[in-house]
Design a protein that fits this description.
This protein folds into 2 domains: 3-110 and 251-315, FAD/NAD(P)-binding domain; 113-247 and 329-386, 3-Layer(bba) Sandwich (FAD/NAD(P)-binding domain). Helix content is 30%, strand content 22%. It has 12 helices and 21 strands. It has helices at 11-23, 45-50, 63-68, 120-123, 130-142, 159-172, 174-178, 192-195, 201-211, 253-256, 297-315, 361-378, and strands at residues 3-7, 29-34, 38-40, 59-61, 71-75, 77-82, 87-91, 97-100, 103-106, 111-112, 146-152, 182-187, 214-217, 222-226, 229-232, 237-239, 242-246, 249-250, 282-284, 331-332, 385-386. Strand 7 (87-91) and strand 8 form a beta hairpin. Helix 1 packs parallel to helix 11. It starts with a strand and ends with a strand. It binds flavin-adenine dinucleotide (FAD).
Length: 390
């Protein structure tokens, strides 16, 4: 009997749990430890702010479906991983102590490093969680006139919600922008092309920003936020009446102790088999891994599939051999609601993980509801264009 321990119950963790529970013999014990028993479907946060999704539609309890698959769930925080004794230190109501593993998958996602941008908490909005997104939605509904700045902080790898929000704000305040009472500015730490990983997508985004009257500010490294201004590292100033920022991302301290180089900032360094180099039987997948370019849920799922496949191979006594290929592909241009949302990865029909009874069945339910809105408002027209891969 082997103990397979999965840390994190997000896109990567539950994808791996599903595959492992299907593929591993019943004698093996699979456990997920996660800080929350609920999965948040992040891709629908921007549509929730600008569309009519209800917050409760974006959260789903994963415990009962995991139990059905004979996967144990422990609610708790991962504090420390000891690769020598093969123990993970957990704190929480369910367990406060060490859990032993034979195989480990680290899928605890990234940390929001808002502390690296002074003034972020006090003066800026973000939408990387349901409550924060609700607060921003409220602020938008109260906003009457002035400048709105939407920006990506240096060290963040989530450019798409910035583009989506800027375009959605331009739609929301179309009349006011026309009358010169409201302006919308989108800020990037490098060029838009670099922010979108050099994919051809940036041309379409740039065109749409222009068409909707959104001012694009590139190479502005947000350094601090004051009451009504953003300051770049070289002290340029951008004033705002309302701001929405995507904060810098960092890895997690539990991973730091596995020895990634300091410049990786707590992100796990993996090889193409999704194994942590130098640590036996430890895999990592999802936003927690060190990766250039944007981080996406569908990549997290693909990485988790590779890690799970290799753990299954190891369980059978063979050498892991399944490799991960990094490829970005996205679809732009489907107008599901009045604003302009992008569709990539988790919205894509080609990912077959969204059966109603799959753990990520929430994705399918959200997408169906989205499709319903689209067909009501746009007569089901689908003006999508696919960009290349990077
Ligand atoms: C606004 C927004 C829009 C997005 N849109 C898209 C999109 O359209 N398409 C797409 O593909 N991607 C999208 N993404 C990105 C996608 O959501 C992430 O890439 C994905 O969630 C990463 O999955 P993960 O499993 O690595 O991490 P997460 O989903 O963040 O899961 C991490 C899990 O670990 C738990 N955890 C964290 N720390 C600890 C700890 N110390 N101890 C125990 N448990 C812990 C958390 O509670 C969580 O359950 C979007 C993200 C945001 C914020």
């Amino acid at each position: 009997m082997s103990r397979i321990l999965i840390l994190g119950g997000g896109f990567a963790g539950i994808t791996a749990a599903e595959l492992l529970s299907e593929g591993a013999a019943a004698e093996h014990e699979i456990t997920i430890v996660s800080a929350s028993r609920k999965l948040t479907f992040f891709p629908a946060l921007v549509p929730m702010v600008f569309g009519d999704f209800l917050p409760e539609e974006l959260r789903t309890d994963i415990v009962a479906p995991l139990h059905e698959r004979k996967v144990r769930f422990i609610e708790g925080e991962v504090l420390k991983i000891d690769p020598v004794s093969r123990n993970v230190r957990i704190t929480g109501d369910d367990v406060d102590g060490d859990l032993r593993y034979d195989y480990l998958l680290i899928a605890i996602g990234r940390r929001l490093a808002t502390e690296t941008v002074p003034g972020f908490f006090e003066h800026a909005h973000h939408l990387l969680g349901i409550n924060a997104a609700i607060r921003f939605k409220h602020a938008v509904s109260e906003f009457k006139a002035g400048s709105i700045v939407v920006g990506l902080c240096p060290g963040s790898s989530l450019p798409v919600p910035v583009c989506e929000s800027a375009l959605a704000l331009a739609d929301r305040f179309k009349a006011e922008i026309g009358e010169g009472r409201v302006s919308v500015t989108a800020v990037f730490p490098e060029t838009l092309e670099q922010g979108l990983a050099g994919t051809g997508l940036f041309r379409q985004v740039e065109k749409n920003l222009q068409r909707k009257g959104v001012r694009l500010v590139e190479n502005f490294q947000i350094g601090r936020v004051e009451k009504a201004s953003l300051f770049s590292a070289d002290e340029q100033e951008l004033s705002f009446g309302l701001s929405l920022l995507v904060p810098p991302f960092r890895g997690q301290t539990a991973v730091q102790e596995l020895g990634p180089p300091e410049e990786e900032e707590g992100f796990a360094v993996v090889n193409s088999l999704m194994q942590i180099e130098g640590s036996e039987r430890i895999y990592a997948a999802g936003d927690i891994i060190a990766l250039d370019g944007p981080r996406f849920g569908y990549l997290a799922m693909r990485q988790a599939k590779v890690a799970a496949a290799n753990i299954l191979i190891e369980l059978s006594g063979e050498k892991p051999s399944v490799e991960y290929t990094h490829e970005l592909a996205w679809i732009l241009g489907e107008e599901y609601t009045d604003p302009h949302f992008f569709h990539y990865g988790v919205w894509d029909e080609t990912l077959r993980d969204f059966d109603e009874d799959a753990l990520l069945g929430i994705a399918r339910r959200v997408r169906e509801r989205y499709g319903h809105i689209r067909s009501e408002r746009n007569g089901g027209n689908d003006a999508s264009a696919r960009s290349g891969s990077a």
